[in-house]
Amino acid sequence: MTRFRHVLLACTALFAAPAAAQTTPPVAAPAPATSTPATPAAVTDVDPALWVVRDEDTTIYLFGTVHLLKPGLGWFDEAVKDAFDASDTLVVEMIEPNPQEMQALVGRTAMAAPGKGLSTHLTPEQQTKLGAALQSVGAPPTAMEPFEPWFASTVIALMPLPALGYDPSKGVDNELQAAARAASKRVEALETAEQQIGFFDSLPLPVQTRILVKTVDEFDDVGPTIDRMVREWGAGDPDALAATMNEQMLEVPEAARALLTDRNARWADWIDARMERPGTVFMAVGAGHLAGEGSVQQQLRRHDLTATREAY
After folding, report:
1. Helix and strand counts by DSSP (H, E) for the chain
2. What are the backbone dihedrals phi and psi of residue 72, each rounded to the nearest 5 degrees, phi first?
3. Which of 19, 62, 1, 2 has the alpha carbon at shortest distance from 259?
4. Could you read off the pLDDT of 12-44 as tens digits, one per residue?
5. How does pLDDT run across 57-69, given as a tens digit for each residue?
6. What residue stretch is flagged as signal peptide (predicted)?
7. Is the CA virtual torsion 37, 174, 49, 161 positive or negative?
């Protein structure tokens, strides 16, 4: 498989849902029409993987999240719930700013320079494909023209998902943060919104454009691809998840380094430092960061730390 589509799907669904993508996008897929009230989905039990790093007085659980999910998956139970309940602190990738701050941040970073709209980076054939993808979800073909390629890629990767039943409000991160607030747990973030946007915005424009072109080329594959990744996450199969996602990221090594391996190394440094203080921490990051070569678990070996898989 050489599906480059996984790069953006991984970023939006399983790595770090980019801060820009968590705002209200400039265009959105129309909600599917229904003639009868929706009935609640049956709950399907899933068992995502959970790891733990321990010493005499410190415990850090590592849990891979999915930032967008369909309703009806029962993941917050058994070992995951026990580990969460035992923790005094929840650590997530990012705590989202309020909508006004986020919109301002996107406005500062996502807009193309004057005379450098999106079409200036694309061939006529690529522009035609982009316009067709946008029109297929009810957006004008020039909707992305004012933006830089990184932002267009992120939004386009998300646009088909609502019609397929995926809902950011049902994402693991949101549910964990709500549960932490309800239980008066401390909530900390590994990164800021500015940093997460910066990982994308700092990519060279040719790299951003390559990602955009591949995203558009495989626009129609979004449903089966994300369905497969969520199944692998729910089955607690990080090896399969890595095979589906991380190998494809190597097709653009600059993106893989900025979005994945460099961040994993920094987070392993954070864990190593945190082990110096007593307490119990539930660390929830995109599942792609805990799978495959260069994962957080592998990076921990540099610090002589071992992450052990918890049994259900």
Report:
1. 14, 8
2. 100, 10
3. 19
4. 555 444 444 444 344 444 444 444 445 555 789
5. 999 999 999 988 9
6. 1-21
7. positive
CA 247 – CA 293 distance, rounded (Å): 9
CB 62 within 8 A of CB 51: yes
Burial letters 266-294, b for 16+ CB under 10 A, else e: ebbebbbebbeeeebbbbbbbbbbbbbeb
The dihedral of CA 277, 279, 285, 290: what is its sign? positive
Helical pair 149-158 and 205-217, crossing angle rounded to 10 deg: 20
CA pair distance 102, 22, nearest whole angstrom: 9
The pLDDT tens digits of the residues spanning 131-157 come to: 999 999 999 999 999 999 999 998 888
- Whose tokens are 């193309």? That residue is 112
pLDDT at 182 over 80: yes
**Hey, what's the torsion of the CAs at 136, 170, 282, 76, to 10 degrees?**
-130
Return the DSSP state at 21: G
CA–CA separation, 233 and 211 (whole Å): 24
Residues 201-235 have pLDDT tens digits of: 999 999 999 989 988 998 888 888 889 999 999 99
To the nearest 10°, the Cα dihedral for 246, 241, 195, 104?
110
Residue 28 token pair: 């959105």
Residue 303 has pLDDT above 80, yes or no: yes
Tell me if residue 261 falls in helix, strand or coil.
helix
User: Is the Cβ–Cβ distance between 292 and 238 less than 8 Å?
Assistant: yes
CA distance 72 to 40: 8
